[in-house]
2,3-dehydroadipyl-CoA hydratase
Amino acid sequence: MALQIHDENRVRTLTLDRPDALNAFDEALYDATADALLAAAEDPDVAVVLLTGAGRAFSAGTDLLEMHRMSTDPDFQRGRHGFPGLLDALVAFPKPLVVAVNGIALGIGATVLGFADLAFMSSTARLKCPFTSLGVAPEAASSFLFPRLAGHQSAAWILLSSEWLSADDALAAGLVWRVTEPDDLMAEARKHAELLARRPVSSLVAVKHAMTAPLRAGIDAARELENAAFAELMGGPANLEALAAFAEGREPDFTGLPG
């Protein structure tokens, strides 16, 4: 099972567990994580969800080998929820979501921070939003949520450059709340999650709804724009070159491609 689920003290811990693939999301993991969030939302014994990764990565984002098959194989079978369904579950999740970034975080591994109510990060972890290096557009309403967290210019650099951010950079940008030593990460994240979980669920839900409901229109509009741009660019010359380069273990060469 690529997603481990553990309940303790009204905190449900979801651990992405594909360490050999750096916890990259394939369709099965998208489905499992979406199902777990939907179940936690309805479970009266769960007050808080804590999301983290197993091994040296938090998540390497979408599984690019599967993404390549998806873009080239007309018979590829998509999941029940897939990436859009996971986003739907994140947007609608009514309880506090605590994220503990234990290692490298790319793509959705980074953009999920836009939906975190509290985010903790290991001092040795790094973030990257690699969309321009893949020849595609942003995702997960990051074009709307990241400027709110980081400010326009920091968000522009993160989304346009496809460069790595250190934990200190992520903290300075407001993408995470606390940075800890690697061995202290889960204890610190769990301490805060369990403190929240001692509060009444009804109050937690009311506070989160008041904070997030005004953002729904902006999130929906951003997702629509991002999805349209992603659909236009995916399978295009730049994206195919990026995916081919990944499969061949080389750097992509975008020079000479049409603008």
